[in-house]
Design brief:
alpha/beta, Arc Repressor Mutant, subunit A, 2 domains, six-stranded parallel β-sheet, elongated
Length: about 230
């Protein structure tokens, strides 16, 4: 029996975060794991692209990049998209403090294979790295619930989400009415109209009147400007 059996190559990980203390902490933890090796660090997306480009001719491309999203110079979503375009085999896990649908969807649509929060424990971090390398997606449970709720909202009948009065308000908002105009049309106070609009945005998981108007058009509650012209 041969004494020197081949040992598998360690998983090569590249860290991207604009906070040096975060990079140091993650690197210190990963160095304790026998089959994971930190091959580089960067403080922003552009530096990450430059660093990975240096590793490529050496045959040392990272297997997985742990990518912060909110950084100067080049943000994490843009960097994720560019890395996946240039090096499709490199997997990326977004690691951030934010649980906002637009950030989650932005990272996943750019090509991230996972989304972790910075308060994730050590086992979850290494699990996300291994899942990405195996071609599986790993999502923080909070993020997974957010996406599930959002998908459910998008496919629900509008009548199941909004009350009849809220639907009336939404129609007026989609037609461009201000809070004052909504109040006049429904013979209520302006504060009541403002509360209705706020409740509608909360129920739909939206952040602006424009998004609410687009949602109403997509759901067929009001015709699109093209259809009515």
């Amino acid at each position: 029996m041969q004494a020197d059996q081949e040992t598998p190559e360690p998983i090569r990980v590249f860290l991207v975060d604009d906070h040096r203390v975060v990079r140091c902490g993650v690197a210190a933890y990963l160095e304790l794991i026998e089959d994971i090796e930190v091959v580089g660090e960067a403080k922003d997306g552009q530096q990450a692209l430059d660093g990975i480009a240096v590793l490529e001719p050496r045959g040392e491309l990272p297997d997985v990049v742990l990518m912060d999203l909110l950084m100067p110079v080049m943000d994490g979503v843009t960097a994720t998209r560019r890395i996946k375009q240039r090096w499709p085999t490199v997997e990326i896990v977004a690691v951030t403090s934010f649980v906002e649908e637009d950030k989650v969807r932005g990272a996943l649509e750019a090509g991230a294979a996972g989304y972790l929060l910075k308060d994730a424990d050590a086992d979850e971090l290494s699990g996300a790295i291994r899942a990405a390398l195996a071609g599986r997606m790993h999502l923080d449970p909070t993020v997974a619930r957010l996406l599930a709720d959002s998908t459910h909202r998008r496919h629900q009948n509008p009548a199941e989400i909004l009350t009849p009065r809220q639907t009336e308000v939404l129609v007026l908002v989609a037609q461009g009415a201000s809070n004052r105009q909504v109040a006049d049309a429904l013979d209520v106070g302006e504060r009541t109209a403002r509360t209705h609009v706020s409740d509608i945005l909360d129920r739909l998981g939206l952040v602006s009147r424009t998004q609410a108007a687009l949602w109403a058009i997509r759901q067929g509650i009001v015709p699109s400007p093209r259809d009515s012209s």
